[in-house]
Amino acid sequence: MDRRSFLLGTSILALSQAIAGCGTNQQPLLNVQLLKNSIPGQVVNQFRKTVTQGGKLKFTPINQLEDLFKLLQTWQQPPTNNQQQWTRYLPFNQNQKSPTANLITLGDYWLQAAIDQKLIQPLATANIKNLVNLNQKWQQIIKHDQEGKIWGVPYRWGNTVIIYNQEKFQQLGWTPTDWSDLWRSELQNRISLLNHPREVIGLVLKKLGKSYNTDNINQISALETELKALNQQVKFYDSKNYLEPLIIGDTWLAVGWSDDIIPIINRYPKFAAVVPKSGTAIWADLWVSPTGANNDSLAYQWLDFCLQPNTSKQIALLTKSNSPIDKTMVNGDIQKQLQNLLLTDSETFAKSEFLLPFPPAVMKDYEDLFMKIKKS
Questions:
Q1: Which residues of 128-161 are buried (b: 16+ CB within 10 A; e: fewer)?
Q2: Does the pLDDT at position 264 exceed 80?
Q3: Cβ atoms of residues 235 and 192 within 8 Å
Q4: CB-based contacts of 273, cutoff 8 Å, min separation 6
Q5: What is the spatial distance between Cα 183 and Cα 161, in angstroms, rounded to a whole number?
Q6: Which parts of the chain are coiled coil (predicted)?
Q7: Which of 91, 193, 292, 301 has the fewest CB atoms within 10 Å distance of its CB?
Q8: Distance (Å, whole) CA 135 – CA 324
Q9: What is the pLDDT of residue 11?
Q10: Which residues contact 217 (CB under 8 A, 6 or more apart)?
Q11: Strand, helix or coil for residue 69
Q12: Residue 344's pLDDT is what?
């Protein structure tokens, strides 16, 4: 399941991680369900040392953002008769229920759906003194209304970026720096793109000097022409296996998410990546509070701890991601081949955007155009 996809259904999860520890009588004072590998164990251990009241902590890693979103849905719905009957076959008592976490990881792209479905509750901003460390760009994504409520706290982020085979581009005598390079004739049938209308149409909009969040794409006369030309360059559309063609040499360049791409760069020295200088899409992992969670001081201590510059830097370095706090990292902290990804310059960052939610009618316009282009 890719980072920019989510289910709005209400099916329950049959995941052992989601029910781990259900049989214990003593519940932890802080129960956190987090995206696997998004918080280093060292950071959790450091936080444990700061907890002076003897509070019990429970951090449960979950494999996919989709699973975390389903957990939020499950906690807000009583089990149906069918679900109760089905759980008889699970290796735990059907009357036991996965306890609602105090905090849970959510991707920024899922945030509005969670708010609309009343799956999460606002955070008490007065209890998070380190919110002041976030710049205005983050305020845009975590407020989501006019009342100033904070719905989430970012703890790491990344970009949609270009990864390319340096050996192939040495033969061409140039390297990609921006979206416009994807249209160069040398790359015909050499590109793999995400199978995602917001990402593909969005990068074309950026090439045209428009926003990823343009809601009137039918009025942009050059858009369809540019998309058709780009489609001639593309060999694969895939949001899960888009890097395999690059690795085996079927493509020379791919567009994808930095958290997928950075491990490939670390493993294969022949690959390099770049954040397009005209701006790109930003993704973020955030802490949110499930509706009904009773968040005492310990939950807010964790949020504040994650927003400390030193902690944020450690999360970013150890998970190979970006810090939401400005100027926490310098070149010397990061491997040379990752510096341009993890130290996005301020001008490019200012031009980059979160993918904001669209009404269904606008989303249908994107999907219809994307399908039309792929069939052409």
A1: bebbebbeebbeebbbbeeeeebbbbbbbbbbbb
A2: yes
A3: yes
A4: 161, 162, 163, 164, 258, 261, 262, 265, 340, 341
A5: 16
A6: 213-240
A7: 91
A8: 8
A9: 31
A10: 201, 205, 223, 365, 366, 369
A11: helix
A12: 80
Write down the pLDDT at residue 148.
76
Query: CA-CA distance, 133 to 269, in Å (whole number)?
Result: 35
- Distance CA(26)–CA(3), nearest Å, equals 34
Q: What is the mean pLDDT of residues 146-170?
A: 92
Q: What's the CA gap between 110 and 106, in Å, rounded?
A: 7
DSSP string, 91-127: SS-TT--PPPPSEEEEEGGGHHHHHHTT-EE-B-GGG
Question: Is residue 100 within 8 Å of residue 293, measured between CB atoms?
Answer: yes
Residue-level length of the chain: 376
Query: What pLDDT is attached to residue 6?
Result: 44
List the beta bridge partners of residue 158.
283
DSSP 150: B
**Predicted model pTM:** 0.84
**Between β-strands 353-354 and 234-237, what pairing exists: parallel, antiparallel or unpaired?**
unpaired
358 neighbors 114 (Cβ within 8 angstroms): no
Which DSSP string corresponds to 271-325? EEEE--TT--EEEEEEEEEETT----HHHHHHHHHHTSHHHHHHHHHHHT-B-SB
Q: What is the mean pLDDT of the chain?
A: 86
* Half-sphere exposure at residue 344, Cβ-oriented, CA atoms within 13 angstroms: 30
| Identity of the amino acid at 171 | Q
Collapsing DSSP states into helix, strand and coil, what is residue 43?
A: helix
The answer on pLDDT for 169 being more than 50 is yes
Q: Are 72 and 104 in contact (CB under 8 A)?
A: yes
pLDDT at residue 332, as a whole number: 81
